[in-house]
Backbone:
């Protein structure tokens, strides 16, 4: 655990080192008006999105899991998808679709705080959605049934019985959204909402001291936020794993309520897809490289697609394996050390990917030693992903473990099972959905990751994300469109096969249960 | 039975995951084997131990064909890394003495100047430097311009009469342009332009121009592409961008009402910001690296820039693409391109002072 902690602390250490080397003064840099205003905006946007995503993600997960909302089965997968769209691509697509000259000209172009809030919420709610959905899988429905039997209406049952049990998962997701929005640059730049990441980026060559010092500040801020956000209330002991319960019948509310998830998908998924398809089909006449329009071969995308898939699956697996011991320790035997390490691990998620990448360059090349051989190799790249996104795996593992009733574990212990056996036979099946959700988040984040991939990957190793960036840089939108569609398709496939299907089959298998 | 179904699902998941992980293992071991890039090894395995590592701020679509051609002609292997010029410069700096880079290609002089100030570039061979006019290379010969990107005013022909168009970039501060201008203040090229303005007219005049623009309530965008799209959509009527964006946009959608307008000859608004190439100090094959730079300044490459990417060639004897006005006609403000590599910090300060927020 200490090793994990040190590893995840390396970005902060690197930033501190650079800051000291360049003579940056943390307080002086932050206290200037030029920085305080963007900082305030960052915090405002991050908290608003976190709250928004918690509400939206939880609501959608409950709708899909507990009610007979229209198109339930399709929604289950589709609702997780908006997270796959890189924020700068999603923002570009929504900007292209709206306003004068767009596909829906009557919708005003998103911009400023409101625009950034809407776009980022719609693209990030899956952080909450996936975690809550996994939690719902194992939330004992007997409580809900009991409440109903005692005469509580549906609404009351949901708010007083169900929601409190979802709070840890929702909060975990909410924290991830908060940190993610802090780190985002692409979307807020396009939507013209000036946040602290803009300052970090715009000064990165011209005033390296400020840039690095602000990066350090962001890391410290993130650690502080995580420590403060420790969920206060302990998990109520849940007696047994879920068995099928009656689905809430929405009755006459079915149609209006069903509009919500589909509307969210229109903005977060279908809208961008339509824009991508438009770009891809419209094609390009004079530009003859890569992709010029329908009829052009897509063979150039085969390599990047494979690379993306392999990198993402590897990163997701390594992340879960690496953080699981820490998650177990922090939930079962919480102490100051585990809390500290958890905070450090989680904070890295708030940093822009560029800084995480430079940290690894620093560790392998600037520090004298044999680590240099690792430079720009695939394992180092995976490490970069794990460092950056490990927080997602950690938080979801913690949320899942917190939901495991301690009584089961104790019962197994009194029966003489060793800790390892207990873990594998008792805990693992119960936390598997949560772990799968966490792995899914890391998978989806890696698929769209850009700076670490561009800087740390082996020469010639391209992913779909780097190709999209390349094409977007110079305005080759036909290629952006078709590559984005491939990314979405592949992400859907991977998530469905590896994450959602195993995690959710139990629900369907039991829907006609006793 | 649910549990049987679950274990079947689990087995399937594990199988698929393991397969992908195994592929990952292969990728890790054979990390020299690019699964994605179009990097071509030499057709006749002449000297495949000659590897040229290129860090390129120019995107793949705009330069890969040239890299492939060079690889084919020399028999060397070209390993290229694509990303943003500034981020790649940071990478080279962080890599320090153990940097694998041989050649650095930049979208603008900014990143090259940054690396040069840190002493990370090495002097190019004299015969290479001779290929390009002194206006378009570093004074100490450590980097050289490759193609020209000209600042222009793109306008929406449905909303703006040609007679209204300004003759000088300074005219944009006229109140007649209030609410009609789009600019990307955080964009490198815009800032390069402001630096040029400072160098030729002085800091005070530059600040005055910036404040004049701010007074006209411009709409700001994060990059040239977004600005152009806004002009095309009619959200703003004119925008300050680089010349080639419109050509590429029109290639994708000929129905766009956008046109380029160049200011009068000699106006600083027509600034030519060059893309550049340099040899990194840590290179292990300076000769091959210099050969590469020479190739980029040769007829094949310069014609490519002119005809395929709509940029201006910088070498004598190559005409710009048919659509483009000749560079001489524009009277591109000749200007100390070296100052574009430095002095951007002060530019940023002025932009902030004027209140122009991106």
Residues:
């Amino acid at each position: 655990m200490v090793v994990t902690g040190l590893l995840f602390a390396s970005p902060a250490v690197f930033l501190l080192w650079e800051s000291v080397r360049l003579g940056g003064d943390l307080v002086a840099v932050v206290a200037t008006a030029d920085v305080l205003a963007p900082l305030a905006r960052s915090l405002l946007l991050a908290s608003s999105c976190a709250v928004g995503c918690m509400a939206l993600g939880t609501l959608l997960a409950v709708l899909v899991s507990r009610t007979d909302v229209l198109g339930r089965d399709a929604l289950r997968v589709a609702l997780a998808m908006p997270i796959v769209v890189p924020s700068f691509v999603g923002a570009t697509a929504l900007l292209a679709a709206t306003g004068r000259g767009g596909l829906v000209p009557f919708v005003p172009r998103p911009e400023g705080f409101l625009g950034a809030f809407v776009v980022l919420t719609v693209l990030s709610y899956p952080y909450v959605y996936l975690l809550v959905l996994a939690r719902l899988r194992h939330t004992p429905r007997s409580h809900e049934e009991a409440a109903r039997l005692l005469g509580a209406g549906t609404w009351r049952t949901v708010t007083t019985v169900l929601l409190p049990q979802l709070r840890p998962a929702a909060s975990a997701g909410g924290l991830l959204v908060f940190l993610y929005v802090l780190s985002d640059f692409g979307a807020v730049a396009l939507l013209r909402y000036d946040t602290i990441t803009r300052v970090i980026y715009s000064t990165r060559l011209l005033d390296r001291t400020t840039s690095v010092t602000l990066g350090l500040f962001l890391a410290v801020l993130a650690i502080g936020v995580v420590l403060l956000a420790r969920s206060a209330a302990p998990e109520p002991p849940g007696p047994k794993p879920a068995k099928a319960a009656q689905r809430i019948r929405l009755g006459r509310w079915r149609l209006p309520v069903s509009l919500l998830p589909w509307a969210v998908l229109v903005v977060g998924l279908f809208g961008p897809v339509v824009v991508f398809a438009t770009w891809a089909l419209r094609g390009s006449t004079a530009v003859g490289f890569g992709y010029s329009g329908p009829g052009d071969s897509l063979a150039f995308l085969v390599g990047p697609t494979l690379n993306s898939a392999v990198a993402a699956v590897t990163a997701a697996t390594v992340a879960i394996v690496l953080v699981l011991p820490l998650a177990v320790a922090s939930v079962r035997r919480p102490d100051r050390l585990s809390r500290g390490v958890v905070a450090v691990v989680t904070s890295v998620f708030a940093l822009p990917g560029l800084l995480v990448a430079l940290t690894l360059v620093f560790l392998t090349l600037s520090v004298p030693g044999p680590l240099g051989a690792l430079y720009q190799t695939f394992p180092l790249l995976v490490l970069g992903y794990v460092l950056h996104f490990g927080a997602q795996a950690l938080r979801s593992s913690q949320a899942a473990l917190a939901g495991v009733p301690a009584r089961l574990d104790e019962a197994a212990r009194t029966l003489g099972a060793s800790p390892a056996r207990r873990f594998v036979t008792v805990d693992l099946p119960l936390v598997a959905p949560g772990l799968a959700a966490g792995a899914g988040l890391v998978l989806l984040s890696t698929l769209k990751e850009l700076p670490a991939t561009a800087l740390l990957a082996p020469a010639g190793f391209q992913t779909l994300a780097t190709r999209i960036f390349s094409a977007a840089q110079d305005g080759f939108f036909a290629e952006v469109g078709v590559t984005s569609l491939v990314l979405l398709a592949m992400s859907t496939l991977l998530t469905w096969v590896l994450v959602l299907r195993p995690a959710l089959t139990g629900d369907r298998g039991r829907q006609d249960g006793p | 039975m649910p549990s049987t179904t679950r274990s079947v699902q689990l087995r399937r998941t594990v199988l698929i995951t393991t397969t992908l992980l195994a592929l990952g293992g292969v990728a890790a071991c054979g990390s020299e084997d690019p699964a994605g890039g179009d990097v071509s090894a030499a057709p006749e395995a002449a000297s495949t131990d000659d590897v040229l590592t290129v860090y390129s701020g120019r995107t793949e679509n705009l330069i890969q064909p040239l890299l492939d051609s060079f690889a084919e002609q020399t028999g060397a292997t070209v390993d290229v890394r694509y990303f943003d010029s500034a981020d790649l410069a940071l990478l080279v700096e962080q890599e320090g003495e153990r940097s694998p880079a041989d050649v650095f290609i930049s979208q603008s002089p900014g990143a090259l100047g940054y690396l040069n100030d840190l002493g990370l570039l090495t002097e190019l061979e004299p015969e290479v430097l001779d290929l390009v006019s002194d206006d378009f290379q570093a004074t100490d010969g450590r980097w050289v311009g490759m193609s020209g990107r000209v600042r222009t005013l793109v306008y929406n022909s449905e909303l703006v009469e040609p007679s209204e168009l300004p003759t000088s970039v300074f005219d944009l501060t006229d109140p007649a342009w209030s609410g009609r201008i789009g600019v990307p203040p955080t964009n490198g090229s815009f800032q390069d332009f402001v630096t040029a303005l400072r160098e030729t007219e002085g800091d005070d005049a530059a600040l005055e121009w910036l404040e004049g623009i701010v007074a006209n309530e411009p709409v700001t965008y994060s990059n040239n592409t977004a600005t152009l799209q806004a002009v095309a959509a009619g959200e703003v009527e004119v925008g300050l961008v680089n010349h080639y964006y419109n050509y590429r946009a029109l290639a994708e959608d000929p129905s766009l009402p956008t046109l380029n307008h160049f200011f009068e000859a000699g106006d600083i608004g027509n600034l030519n910001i060059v893309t550049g190439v340099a040899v990194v100090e840590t290179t292990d094959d300076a000769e091959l690296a210099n050969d590469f730079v020479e190739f980029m300044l040769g007829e094949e490459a310069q014609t490519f820039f002119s005809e395929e990417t709509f940029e201006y060639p910088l070498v004598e004897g190559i005409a710009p693409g048919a659509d483009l006005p000749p560079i001489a006609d524009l009277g591109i403000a000749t200007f100390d391109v070296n100052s574009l590599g430095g002095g951007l910090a002060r530019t940023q300060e002025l932009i902030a002072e004027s209140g122009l927020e991106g």
Q: What stands out?
A: The first strand of chain B starts at residue 51 and ends at 56. Chain B touches chain A through 79 residues (CB under 8 Å). Residues 51-148+273-324 of chain B form a domain with the D-Maltodextrin-Binding Protein; domain 2 fold (CATH 3.40.190.10).
